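#lab-general

N.A. 3:47 PM
ok so I finally got the sequence cleaned up, no stray characters, all 273 residues accounted for. can someone with queue access submit it? mine expired

B.Y. 3:52 PM
send it over

N.A. 3:53 PM
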Amino acid sequence: MDDVRDVDVLDGARTTAALTALGVRPGDVLLVHASLRSLGPVAGGARGVLGALRRAVGPGGTLVVPAFTPENSDTSPHYRARVRGLDADAVEAVRASMEPYDPSLTPAPSMGALAETVRTAPGAGRSAHPQTSFAALGPRAARLLAGHRAGCHLGEDSPLARLYEADARILLLGTGYATCTAFHLGEYRMPGPPRRNYRCVVASRGVRRWWEYEDVALDDGDFAALGAAFEGAAADGDVRAGHVGAASCRLLRLRPAVDFATAWLTEHRATAR
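B.Y. 4:20 PM
back already:
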C-alpha cells in the first residue's frame, strides 16, 4: 500500500501568527514581494494570505505590492522572450495585440497571485505609471500611490520614494533579495546613473499609441549580492529572518536598505565599468 501522508495546510490564524512572529506589526506600511508556492499549501490560497497580512497590519496598516506590466512594452525582457524566433509578421501581430495600460483593468500576471489579489481587492488603488505601477490597500494607499510620474519608473516621483518617506518595511515572503524592488530607488540616487529609452503602449484620449521615453537604466542583476551585503552589515532590527509556512522570509526596513543600496551600487557598479 502506498504511504499516504496528511498534507499540512497553513490556515489563516497560523499564517497571521507567523507574520507577527517575524515582526509584522499593526500600523505597518508594508511593501510585499511574495512567492506563494514557496509557502506550501495555504487555506484560501492568495486570498487567505492577503487576509493574514491584513490582520497582521491591522486596520491602520497599509499593504503595497508591485503591479508591473512588462506585457505592454516592446523594450522589456518579457517582450524579447515572447518574440524570440518569430518572423516579422508574427512579431507585428504580437505588437498589434498589446493593450494600452489602464490602471483599473490591466492585469499584472508576471507579479504573481498575491499582487493580483491585492490589485483586484475592493478598495485597492493603483499608481499611474504604465510600466511600473504599484497597488495598495489601506488608509495610506492613496498618498503612497499619488503622483507616480509617467517618466519615472522607480525614482523620486514614484511610490518607492513615498514608501521611503513613510519608513515602510519590506516583506520578502518566500522570495530573495533579487526581487527587492526598493533597491531600484538606490539606482536613481547614484550620481549620474546611466539612462536608456523605453517604449510601451498607452491610450491618449481613447486612442491607442506607442509612447517612448527616457529614464534610468534599471538593472537588478546584482541585487542578490547587494542584499547579502546589506544583511551582513545591517544594524540590529533592520533585517529579521524567519519562516511562514515552508517559506524562508525576510522583513527589512526600507530606508536603511535603500541607503545601503545607494552607496553599494555607487561603489560596485563604478568598479565594474
